Structures are given as C-alpha cells and as structure tokens.
C-alpha cells in the first residue's frame, strides 16, 4: 500500500493534538465533544493507512453519511426538549450516533480486539451527554443504535470469515463467508 503522505499532518492533529488539548480541560461535555469525532477519525485513518485500496474508506463514508442524515432527519422531525430545558433537538443524540458509528466500524471491519476499546470510548461519549444534561438515556441509546446499524449495514470485515444471521422462508441459521 502506498502511504498518502499529505494526510499525516492532518491525522496527527486529529488523533493527538486536538483531543489532548480538549481532554486537558475540565469539562466532561468538551471531552465528549472531542471523542465523538476521534473515534470515526481513527476508523478512517485505519482504512487509509492500513488497507490497500479504498473499499474501507467508501464503506466508512456510507456509514457516516447514513448516520448523520438519519440523525438530522429525526432531530428535525421529533422536536424533543433536552433535559436542561433547551428546545428541541434532543432525540437522538448525534454525539452518540457519531461515536458509535466509528466504534461499530472498527469492530465490524477489524474485529472485537479493536472494537471493545472503541465501544468503551463511545459509551463514555454517551455518558458525557447524559452527565452534561444534554440527553437522557433514550436519546443516547437511539443514537448508538443508529450508528451501530449504519456500520453493520455497510461495513464488511477487512479479512477473514464473516458470520451473518440468516432468516428466510421459515429457515434460520448462520451464514459463513470468507475472503481469501
């Protein structure tokens, strides 16, 4: 794979300088603001630097665009008041949706070994939204579900065996597919 040299400074800033600057501050809300973007940024960086070709990057883009579009439409349609009394864009949590899209992408594409830490950080982002009184648990859970479903719909494992639930014509089971 040929490295894309022009991306190194941007990714260094996205992955290290920007999060560390914000995480150094006291505000739990600011931590969630930063980490919601850091997780998908790491996922995109993995597709650009680890993989050959652009299949992973395209899958990442589809998952992210689907998540953000779904969140935008629901926020404009539902008009739910936030727990802090601000009107009217609480449902679903966009921060949780973005973070969980990145975490589910990492897990789905590269496996649970990378996915578990990503999900833990995404769960912390959801916690920051509840703790800062921007969302309730339902808002965060809905955002997380949107992000996870978007990634699961578009993302395929990078290498190895894929296990997919199967249900059709009264038959149920697991389907195993692989890339060699």
UniProtKB/TrEMBL annotation:
Domain Phosphatidic acid phosphatase type 2/haloperoxidase span(s) in chain numbering: 55-155
One Pfam family of this chain: PAP2
SMART domains for the chain: acidPPc
SUPFAM superfamilies on file: Acid phosphatase/Vanadium-dependent haloperoxidase
UniProt name for this protein: Phosphatase PAP2 family protein
Lineage: Bacteria, Pseudomonadati, Pseudomonadota, Gammaproteobacteria, Alteromonadales
